[in-house]
Write a structure and sequence with these properties.
By secondary structure, the protein is α+β, with helices and mostly antiparallel strands. The chain folds into three domains: 4-115, Rossmann fold; 122-126 and 203-297, ATP-grasp fold, B domain (D-amino Acid Aminotransferase, Chain A, domain 1); 143-201, Dna Ligase, domain 1 (2-Layer Sandwich), CATH 3.30.1490. It is 34% helix and 27% strand. It has helices at 14-27, 39-42, 88-109, 118-124, 127-136, 150-159, 189-194, 245-258, 290-293, 297-311, and strands at 4-9, 31-35, 45-46, 54-56, 62-64, 68-73, 113-115, 144-147, 164-167, 180-182, 197-201, 205-214, 217-224, 237-241, 262-270, 275-281. The strands form four sheets. A five-stranded antiparallel sheet has the order 14-13-12-15-16. Helix 1 (14-27) packs across helix 10.
Length: 313
């Protein structure tokens, strides 16, 4: 079989299917989507010590892992879709077995270019590591507390009369939680002690940036919104934004530190023009911004993978 690109994601991930289609149509590169959440119903794997390994793609075709020379590790390690024939305990067991089987086969038998490697993704998703490295790379980072101590949270709020926001550290798959403002009267000891959260100095701003870094290519999308968490509102404008050179260099330095080939950053520009780092999601969302900002993000992403594919032939 010819060399190909593999996109490891979810059955209904539009990013995966849109980029795969563009790679096939524009660059004539065989590209397969591997739906990690659909194997219990329609997938298969085969590993034999000392022999070739196979993983079935979205269409149920067995693909030899050795034929894949670029992997987009986009939405891996996800639970299997709910199945009416399985009780919750069995479903959890089956999901875990598929998760480890798929991850093990890819990591043992794939020898091409990762975007990103599982280990790089894991390191870069650690919030504390993100903040520390961003600051070391020269990015401005809002003062941040991660804690479940009511006393520490109250002290942090007192130190920042300009305001504080609270957000999740990681969350869980399929559950979306907004970033919200928090004030002293909202602090309840029981709730704060339940688990750690991220408390961060509020930046007065109405310009947000979602920056997609693909190798050395940096695409910045500006989002104009007065809503604290602009992702929770459809009432915003978006446009291609020209990122200043200092921030661009700092982001590329951040990427090199974590050995990332792809990263989706959230930044914010304060009302005095200063740019601040908020977080990075190595496999973040960006496709929804394409029709609003009128930027060919699918094309830019496909071009990046086409270049990765050619470099590995």
């Amino acid at each position: 079989m010819a060399a190909c690109v593999g996109i490891v994601s979810l059955e209904l991930d539009l990013h995966a299917h849109a980029v795969a289609q563009r790679l096939r149509e524009r660059y004539n590169i065989p590209t397969h989507v591997f739906a990690t959440d659909d194997y219990v119903e329609a997938g298969g794997v085969q590993y034999r010590l000392g022999k070739d390994s196979y993983v079935s793609n979205y269409n149920g075709v067995d693909i030899r892992v050795a034929d894949v020379n670029v992997v987009w590790w986009r939405r891996a390690n996800q639970p299997q879709k709910q199945n009416d024939t399985l009780d919750s305990e069995t479903h959890a067991f089956v999901s875990s077995e598929w998760k480890f089987a798929l991850s093990s086969i890819w990591q043992s038998d794939f020898s091409g270019s990762w975007v990103n490697s599982p280990s790089a993704d894991q390191k870069a998703t650690a919030k504390t590591a993100q903040l520390t490295v961003a600051q070391k790379c020269g990015l401005s980072v809002p003062d941040t507390l991660i804690s479940n101590s009511p006393e520490a949270v109250r002290l942090f709020l007192a130190e920042h009369p300009e305001g504080v926001v609270v957000k999740k550290i990681a969350g869980v798959a399929g559950k979306s939680l907004a970033t919200v403002a928090v004030t002293p009267d909202l602090i309840q000891d029981e709730g704060v002690q339940l688990c750690p959260a991220v408390y961060q100095q509020k930046i007065d701003a109405d310009v947000h940036l979602r920056v997609i870094v693909l190798g050395d290519n940096v695409v910045s999308i500006g989002i104009q919104s007065d809503v604290l968490d602009w992702r929770r509102s459809l009432h915003f404008t978006a446009y291609e934004h020209e990122l200043d050179s200092q921030t661009r260099v700092a982001l590329l330095s951040f990427m090199r530190h974590f050995e990332l080939r792809m990263g989706v950053f959230d930044l914010i520009i304060d009302r005095k023009g200063g740019t601040h780092f908020l977080e990075v999601n190595p496999q973040g969302q960006f496709l929804f911004l394409e029709p609003i900002a009128k930027v060919d993000l699918i094309g830019k992403c496909a071009y990046f993978f086409a270049e990765e594919f050619r470099a590995n032939q």
